[in-house]
Design brief:
single chain, 9 helices
């Protein structure tokens, strides 16, 4: 059982912890606004992931795999939402005090994960290949979800702290503008990659 949990945790780390729209959004927001003002986004991303986990365990991931047109529609909607968040990050006023309403929120985090087809694809892989061998099957899904959520809490906390660590770079207007455009560009690249290679 311990080796199964370890395998699941490492897989979840690689799948959930890799740079993508969620982590880049957390880094850019915490670098611009600080860790404390980014906590609501961080919690929203985790809540959205939790909702995605439940939806996938109830069959949404399988439904998306069976209906490519539904998956494509979700990918387009999710991609447009990530592009909107990238725009907000890139165009946030340089002075965080003037950018009060531009800080991403809990709702932004929830929507980011709910509309992210990568979440469902990853969860389909996890549930079909790495579901913990526990009886009854409901307990297997719950323990798998808890393990994945623990990994997501830690990896997203890493991204949150990384953003806080590079925040001094965002105090210089020219550097701040370049970094925010860079993070927005990484989000756009992640969306393009997801749309064209999934």
């Amino acid at each position: 059982m311990i080796s199964d949990v370890t395998t699941l945790a490492v897989t979840a780390l690689l799948l959930f912890g890799s740079p993508g729209p969620g982590p880049m959004t957390i880094v850019a927001t915490s670098a611009t606004f600080g860790i404390r003002r980014t906590i609501s986004l961080y919690l929203g991303i985790l809540l959205g992931l939790g909702l995605s986990m439940v939806a996938a365990s109830l069959g949404l991931a399988t439904l998306l795999a069976a209906w490519p047109s539904l998956k494509s529609a979700l990918q387009i909607l999710g991609g447009l939402y990530v592009l909107y968040l990238a725009y907000r990050i890139a165009t946030t006023p340089l002075d965080p005090n003037q950018a009060g309403g531009s800080c991403l929120t809990l709702t932004d985090g929830v929507l980011l994960n709910i509309l992210n087809p990568k979440s469902y694809a990853v969860l389909l892989v996890i549930y079909s290949k790495f579901l913990l061998p526990v009886s009854p099957v409901v307990a297997a899904y719950l323990m798998t979800m808890l393990t994945c959520m623990a990994v997501a809490v830690i990896t997203n906390l890493f991204w949150l702290c990384l953003g806080g660590a590079i925040r001094p770079l965002f105090q210089h207007p020219a550097a701040s503008r370049r970094l925010r455009f860079g993070f927005a560009a990484l989000m756009v690249i992640a969306v393009c990659w997801a749309l064209f290679y999934s």
